Amino acid sequence: MLKTFKPGGIHPAENKLSAKEAIKVPGIPKTVFIPVAQHIGAPSVPVVKRGDSVKVGQLIAKSGGFVSANIHSSVSGKVKKIDTIPDSSGYRKQGIIIDVEGDEWEESIDTSENLVGQFNLTSEEIINAITQAGVVGLGGATFPTHVKLMPPKGMKAEILIVNGVECEPYLTSDHRLMLEKADEILVGTRLLMKAMKVDKAYIGIENNKPDAIQLLKQKIQGGNHIEIVTLKVRYPQGGEKQLIKAVTGKEVPSGGLPIAVGAVVSNVGTAFAVYEAVQKKKPLVERVVTVTGKSVGKPSNFKVRIGTPVSVLINAAGGMPEDTGKIISGGPMMGKAITNLDVPVTKGTSGILLMKGSESKRKKTISCIRCSRCVSVCPMGLEPYLLQTVSEKQMWGPAEEGNIMDCIECGSCSYTCPSNRPLLDYIRLGKGKVGQIMRTRKS
Predict the structure, then answer these.
(1) How many domains does one find in the chain?
(2) DSSP string over 117-151
(3) Mean pLDDT (the chain, rounded)
(4) What is the pLDDT of residue 264?
(5) Is residue 193 part of a domain?
């Protein structure tokens, strides 16, 4: 019997239109905008100024604190200016604009395709290489990877779980990466294990990716330190707490972190980035992005330089379909709509989804019919209908008592609601306010 998590979960239409499309390089844009806040935590601090010449892989913004990450240039050229433009959130964020001139890389970076499988570095040296390279979680959360590898006092990692689930509909970047860079991902996994000082890792993959499961099992060749776990297709299984539950049966306590049950979760894209950072001395300057949609001419997976405008990717995938109603950064469940095609690709950009106009419009909201579907599908065991009501009425005490901060914002409640109620919208609003109250109380 295939493993999965409980409670909750849904199975929306998968629409993996680009699953068979090999990773391609769309070309280098003429100008890139590289935000200094591409991660959870403090924004990075620019270390270059207008007129400076930079190479690919050169540090251009230094980590602004422990929970932060270095930023490197993804192109070679000249710094045009440090300015603000809207990012995928719609807010203006500071970033570094670089005019591209050629493609000159830092000399220390190994740009060859040769596999390097050496493991002679210490745990501290691996973590330092990851820190210097600015590696963050590429599954969407963008939590600085080096912070995950250094758990708080009194807590110890026992296992590593590598997330190859990719449960969001439409997205296929992780799937293609597993098929095309399996050896590198396994080396990255072993490096993470050594950094954490653990001797067991699991790679969780849903059974709608049988080719990736088969390939990775062949590559492991019966080794007992890394195990491929085949999972039943179920959204949002890619969430850290859901994946831990599915793979180990352990449940992360309310308000707790995965390390509370001895687990560290890392995306397959992050494992690949760790391989490149440690073995190739290559900072995180590019990532794989899926560009897709039912009307897109050429749904594709692209290896993209950080800072590339979204418009470049859309053109490379066949251009903007006439019936496009909404452009989403990420997947349809947890992604965010963007209003500007100059929005840059960041470390956390997993996909660009062009939705048809007929699919992008919200249906008319009617009164709650008390069907409890939102409760049955919530993977965190919450009561979304109640959390919406108390958030709408600004009743922050009951919202906190209802564990609103445990919501992972997966959207399962809104997806399944027959009354089309904006459950997640109000829960997000409530989370923001309750979180602010809790931080004020602690300070």
Answers:
(1) 2
(2) ----S-HHHHHHHHHHHT-B-TTTT--BHHHHTSP
(3) 95
(4) 95
(5) yes
